[in-house]
Amino acid sequence: IFVLDMGKQVKIKVLAEQMIRLAGLRPHEDIEIETTGIRAGEKMQEELFTDDEQSLRKKHKRIHQVKAKVQTWRKVSGALQAFKKTVEIEDPLQAKNLLKKYVPNFQEPQHVPDSSVRRRKTRKS
To answer: Which tops the pLDDT comparison, 42 or 100?
Structure first.
């Protein structure tokens, strides 16, 4: 896996203001920028690689080669079967526990609004 270092971090508000100016308009006058906050599962920062990935020797200072942790098909297949059963019985707690088990860097969202979680309606034949 190759990971590109894209340089310094940029605040999304500054980027939005620049895009508005490039369109020939004035931010906060012609177009208002509304801050809505972070959504469930959204990250505040992106890390280049995780703790379980190994960074290999670099040939270029801004191109990283990463050796990802390889999973066996048996483990992946078992995880998929477990998720499938959890979906079939509609058990959110079990789904969360499976994510914690199979996704090493899984973090629970602080708050998930009720409107973003919809249960599937089942129709009896």
So the answer is: 100
